[in-house]
Amino acid sequence: MPQAIRLKDHEKDSRLIRKRAIVGAAVVLLMTSILVARMYYLQVVQFEHHTTLAENNRIHVQPIPPSRGLIYDRNGVIIADNRPSFSLTLTRERAGDWPRVLDEVVSVLELGSEERALFEKRVRQGRRPFEPVPVLFELSEEQIARIAINQFRLPGVEVVAQLVRHYPLGDHFAHSVGYVGRINDKELKKLDPVAYSGTHHIGKTGIERFYEDELHGQVGYEEVETNARGRVLRVLKRTDPTPGKDIILSLDVRLQEAAENALAGRRGAVVAIQPQTGEVLAMVSQPSFDPNPFVTGIGFKAYADLRDSIDRPLFNRVLRGLYPPGSTIKPMVAVAGLDAGVVTPQTRVFDPGFYQLPNHSHKYRNWNRTGDGWVDMDLAIARSNDTYFYSMAHKMGVDRMHDYMSRFGLGQRVALDMFEETGGLMPSREWKRARLRQPWYPGETLILGIGQGYMQTTPLQLAQATVLMATRGKWIRPHLAKSIGDDPVLNTNPPPDIVLRDPAFWDHGIKGMESVMHGARGTARKVGDASLYRIAGKSGTAQVVAIKQGEKYDRDKVAERHRDHALFVAFAPAENPQIAVSVMVENGESGSGVAAPVVKQVLDAWLLDEKTGQLKAEYAPQAAATGTAP
After folding, report:
1. Nearest by Cα to 367 from 529, 592, 594, 584
2. Annotated catalytic, 197?
3. Is the pLDDT of residue 627 over 70?
4. Is residue 292 within 8 Å of 166, Cβ to Cβ?
5. Which residues of 334-350 are buried (b: 16+ CB within 10 A; e: fewer)?
6. Beta bridge partners of residue 429, listed in sequence order
7. Where are any strands of DSSP class E within 586-623?
8. Distances (CA, A) of 621 to 54, 278, 575, 600, 626
9. What's the DSSP call for residue 43?
């Protein structure tokens, strides 16, 4: 049968359409309400928040690093300054794929793989977000032009003008002034992130490190308007930084050069101190190095050459070099023996060329194997007689020796502002028991009396001990800085002065030192006789390798670097001390023959008039007598 045809129900369709329209309108109204509510929330409720975000995207606060304080010598000669330089910086957040950008930089500037590795190392070092990192310093005009032409290939890369530390005198003051270098990850964690915003260098060694806070200054800021690519459009507000304080050192450039010339290329150290003030006039460690490459980042090969050199140019011999003082401490030992009451100036000892402890067969040799006969204190110092000082050391004992020599600054840090200084070693019973788990033997006391054995000192400590002889026990810590800004450097927290039972004991020690230079049997009389003023000095020889009992030192059988070190200490004029000098020449063998002439040249450079060659009037003995000496 045919199927019934269904008639269309228009009323039902109309109701369905109306329902759908109502539902659609409700949905549209709901969505519109949500949109309006969201817009109200964003534009009204959170207006200030989003306005601030938008403003921050347009306006940035950029740090302005302060210019580092300058460093001068005592006469105003600049030793460390700031030189304008164009640097290439990269901001990782704006560079995107920054390794690719570095590849582009290397390609554009036609650099090698070593530079590429150095760039990446610098970028990877810790830094603050959106802070530009310098990757290349001292750009040439050609390099600047290449970067400008290829700027579209180098997002996040900019050429900026910066002040870069520069040392115009090169290697002359590398070990005293030191140098600055890039802030590393370890330093970044310790530094104040606000104070060092925008600063990429910090003092690494020497004066640059010790006075970092004074040299650095205070950071400034500027608010700048930028476009969407981060380019600065204009400066809205600026707060200028406060530059670091300038430092005037006590060092004298002319005397420094004279000391270097006196060493004549030999490995060694020279320290010159003004006794009345503790000001270090010269501080030489040879060989030295040029600190300028360390500022902008020294290459791997160049650093390896310095680090691995057998002559150790990076090693500060003045502050870190440890050497037996040898006979240079005999005047101090003599003063100690007088004060301890174990000898008098007239005490005589017979020297057959050796010394023996009671009931012992071992012979402790004098350097003069034939002996000097009967020797008193003056002759013992003049001749550097070991037998006399063996006898005195035995009478004093190690405990009193340790106490007196420590009062002279041996075995401890003596400087006021030298960061790298090591303390050396003044041995004692307690030290040997703790270190070697052995008792102290009487023979070791004898060796200690002539500055050998376990004792280790730096050239600076020997210079300070010589100053204490010149000032008769007045303690003033040696220092490199003369003034910081407008403020003089004060002698803070010095050790107690050396006070003897009888001040005349100093005279006997100094008289012996004068006899070394001017006595008929003095070991350095050839140097002293050529002088226009009286010098108080003492030679010393420090063994590098031990010699067996009964054997004699033969230089031809010893490798050059195993030969004895030559030492000499002195102050002058003896009646009116104006300068004290300590010299150590590595493997120089003879203190009187090699180190003493170096001391003499340094003394002459400071005391004699350049034009006339005569002793300066203010340093003459009569000036001291009338109280007119500076």
Report:
1. 592
2. no
3. no
4. yes
5. bbbbbbbebbebebebe
6. none
7. none
8. 78, 21, 6, 18, 9
9. I
Q: How far apart are CA 323 and CA 374, in angstroms?
A: 31
Q: How far apart are CA 497 and CA 362, in angstroms?
A: 39
CA-to-CA distance for 398 and 133, rounded, in angstroms?
58
Distance from C-alpha of 190 to C-alpha of 207, rounded to nearest angstrom? 20
DSSP state of 218: B
Show the beta-strand stretches assigned E in 57-153: 59-64, 71-72, 78-90, 133-136
User: Which domains can be identified in the chain, with CATH numbers?
Assistant: 61-248 (3.90.1310.10), 253-287+304-345+357-408+421-626 (3.40.710.10)
DSSP 481-543: EEEETTEEPP--SPPPP---SSTHHHHHHHHHHHHHHHSTT-TTHHHHHT-SS--EEEEEEE-
How far is 3 from 334, CA to CA, in rounded Å? Answer: 142
Say how many residues make up the chain.
630
pTM of the model: 0.83
Q: How far apart are the first and last CA of the chain?
A: 142
Distances (CA, A) of 321 to 180, 277, 324, 459: 23, 24, 10, 7
CA distance linking residue 503 with residue 234, whole number of Å: 73
Which among 521, 554, 563, 546 is positioned nearest to 384, based on CA atoms? 521
For 390-419, what is each residue's pLDDT tens digit?
Answer: 999 999 999 999 999 999 999 999 999 998
**In 91-173, where do the E strands start and end?**
133-136, 157-166
**Kind of pairing between the strands at 232-239 and 487-488:** unpaired
The pLDDT value given to residue 622: 54
Structure tokens at 118: 């150095």
| Cβ atoms 243, 66 nearer than 8 A | yes
Contact 325, 427 (CB under 8 A): no
- Dihedral of alpha carbons 540, 396, 455, 457, sign: negative
- Predicted local distance difference test score (pLDDT) of residue 115: 82
- φ/ψ of 565, rounded to 5, equals -80, 145
Query: Do you find a cis peptide bond into 621, omega within 30 degrees of 0?
Result: no
Q: What is the CA radius of gyration of the chain?
A: 37
CA distances (Å), origin 196, targets 122, 156, 241, 606: 17, 22, 12, 41
Q: What is the DSSP string of 560-595?
A: GGGSPEEEEEEEESTTS--EEEEEEETT---IIIII
Name the pairing type of β-strands 78-90 and 268-273.
unpaired
Which DSSP letter does residue 173 get?
A: G
Burial of 553 from C-beta contacts in 10 A (0-12 / 13-18 / 19+): middle
Which residue's entry shows tokens 């490798």? Answer: 559
589: left (phi over 0), alpha (psi -120 to 50) or beta: left
Euclidean distance between CA atoms 392 and 339, whole angstroms: 12
Residue with the two structure tokens 């570095």 = 102
- CA angle in degrees (0–180, nearest 5) for 530-536-542: 95
- Alpha carbons 174 and 178: distance in angstroms, whole number: 5
Q: Which helix (H) or strand (E) holds 269?
A: strand 268-273
Q: Mind listing the pLDDT tens digit for each residue in 211-254?
A: 999 999 999 888 777 665 556 667 778 888 999 999 999 999 99
Name the phi and psi angles at 596, rounded to 5. -60, -45
Tell me the residue type at 515.
S
Catalytic residue among 327, 428, 531, 582: 327
- Res 289: pLDDT: 96
